[in-house]
């Protein structure tokens, strides 16, 4: 049965693995697949999908255990590959061979694993506040070294039991700081901003299946602080570094362009995450802390993308002094020769690999890239596959505000026409 809400259509698609609920806008165009994060559903993308240009075909599936997709158990020993294989089966069922992937939070990990398993099927990859390529919790250092051989500090045992209980009860109130509505307002978003779609997002969060096979998953005891280690089933265990690691991402071939967008005030995926028991122990919120370092989630992502960008691709890194995001940009070498990035600091325009005429120490740096001799007034045309090169300066939270997020994604996907000024 197909239902329509404004221009969003939702329907169930039977595949060889399970029946998947998807949201879509049109049946034709270049496919762009939006993958949601943990404790959410495709409903979080509903304000973004209609804003893509008509040449694109946006598709947003509910992952297993979320929304209206079949709630099959999650085998955490495969990492995120249950979700990856479900996504591959869905795309085969709807007749899509290659697609742009957009992954948010846990969905970013699904998209990265999909790239690792099916590189030829990925046109481009956009990561929005993605989970670290070395999982969530239980590691230290940029190379994702385990804190303990059993993965202590990650997995199903790290979830807050009150949040799990309130999800299971269908709590729609705000009486507790751990109600889904309060978690959305205080952690997914940056207070005091509240979304006009809050009720819909809370309903999406409440579609999360709970238990050992879903969220948060099972756990085992550990002799190492904090006393819990990952099990073999469920959502948080499939993101444990015991089961999910992308050490070989830089070896994929071919390498599509990658855009990384993150809110600098995100408190979930962060080097000081309020959902990482090691950081909570360091600030005294979890007793008995033994000095275990917090996971540098953002630094790990940057490390993996730097390796991805080495050799076969050119890369640029822009740290914006304006409130907003930090972005890693990668593009194939052939595209990078024809691409440039510009940004304005006090009215000064500069490009990757070139010092701005008015350099702002400690505020602005662009690395590395080829220095071009003359400044251009507009970007040259790009290959049709394009390169992701825009950042959303307004994103200050774990999610994206719909209109500005969609504008960022449109810029990342489209091929500029001659005479179009570079977006600022």
Task: Explain what the structure shows.
This protein is α/β, with parallel strands linked by helices and 424 residues long. It has one domain (3-143, 242-413): Rossmann fold (3-Layer(aba) Sandwich), CATH 3.40.50.1820. It has ten helices and 19 strands. An eleven-stranded mixed beta sheet has the order 1-2-3-5-4-6-7-14-16-15-19, sandwiched between helices. A two-stranded antiparallel sheet has the order 8-9. Strand 17 (343-345) and strand 18 form a beta hairpin. Helix 1 crosses helix 2 (106-117) and helix 4 crosses helix 5 (198-205). The chain starts with a strand and ends in an 11-residue tail after the last helix. The model is unreliable at 1-6, 312-396 and 415-424 (pLDDT under 50).
What's the layout of helices and strands?
Blueprint: E1 3-5, E2 8-14, E3 19-24, E4 30-35, E5 56-61, H1 81-93, E6 99-104, H2 106-117, E7 122-128, E8 139-140, E9 145-146, H3 161-169, H4 180-188, H5 198-205, E10 210-211, E11 215-216, E12 219-221, E13 228-230, H6 235-238, E14 258-261, H7 277-282, H8 297-309, E15 313-319, E16 326-332, H9 333-336, E17 343-345, E18 348-350, E19 366-367, H10 402-413
Parallel strand pairs: 4-5, 4-6, 6-7, 7-14, 10-11
Antiparallel strand pairs: 1-2, 2-3, 3-5, 8-9, 12-13, 14-16, 15-16, 15-19, 17-18
């Amino acid at each position: 049965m197909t239902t329509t809400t404004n221009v969003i259509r939702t329907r169930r698609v039977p595949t060889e693995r399970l029946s998947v609920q998807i949201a879509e806008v049109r049946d034709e165009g270049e496919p762009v697949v939006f993958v949601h994060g943990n404790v959410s559903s495709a409903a979080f993308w509903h304000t973004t999908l209609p804003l893509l240009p008509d040449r694109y075909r946006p598709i947003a599936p509910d992952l297993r255990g979320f929304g209206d997709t079949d709630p099959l158990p999650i085998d955490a020993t495969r990492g995120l590959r249950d979700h990856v294989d479900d996504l591959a089966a869905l795309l085969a069922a709807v007749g899509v061979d290659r697609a742009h992937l957009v992954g948010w939070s846990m969905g970013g990990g699904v998209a990265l694993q999909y790239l690792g398993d099916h590189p030829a099927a990925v046109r481009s990859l956009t990561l929005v506040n993605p989970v670290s390529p070395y999982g969530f919790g239980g590691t230290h250092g940029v190379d994702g070294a385990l804190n303990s051989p059993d993965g202590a500090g990650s997995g199903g045992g790290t979830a807050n039991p009150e949040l799990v209980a309130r999800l299971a009860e269908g709590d729609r109130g705000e009486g507790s700081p751990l109600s889904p509505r309060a978690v959305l307002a205080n952690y997914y978003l940056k207070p005091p901003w509240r979304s006009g779609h809050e009720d819909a997002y809370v309903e999406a969060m409440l579609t999360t299946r709970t238990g050992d096979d879903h969220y948060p998953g099972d756990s085992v005891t550990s002799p190492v602080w904090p006393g819990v280690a990952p099990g073999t089933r469920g959502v948080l265990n499939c993101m444990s570094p015991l089961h999910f690691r992308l050490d070989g991402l830089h070896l994929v071939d071919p390498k599509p362009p990658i855009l990384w967008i993150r809110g600098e005030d995100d408190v979930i995926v962060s080097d000081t995450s309020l959902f990482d028991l090691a950081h909570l122990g360091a600030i005294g919120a979890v007793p008995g802390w033994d000095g275990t370092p917090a996971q540098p989630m953002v630094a790990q992502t940057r490390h993996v993308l730097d390796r991805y960008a080495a050799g076969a691709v050119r890369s640029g890194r822009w740290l914006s002094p304006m409130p907003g995001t930090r972005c890693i940009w990668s593009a194939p070498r052939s595209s990078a020769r024809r691409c440039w990035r510009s940004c304005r600091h006090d009215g000064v325009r500069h490009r990757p690999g070139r010092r701005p005429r008015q350099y702002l120490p400690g505020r602005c740096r662009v690395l590395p890239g080829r220095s071009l001799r003359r400044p251009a007034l507009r970007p040259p045309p790009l290959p049709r596959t394009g390169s992701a090169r825009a950042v959303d300066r307004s994103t200050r939270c774990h999610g994206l505000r719909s209109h500005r997020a969609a504008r960022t994604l449109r810029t990342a996907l489209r091929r500029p026409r001659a005479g179009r000024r570079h977006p600022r």
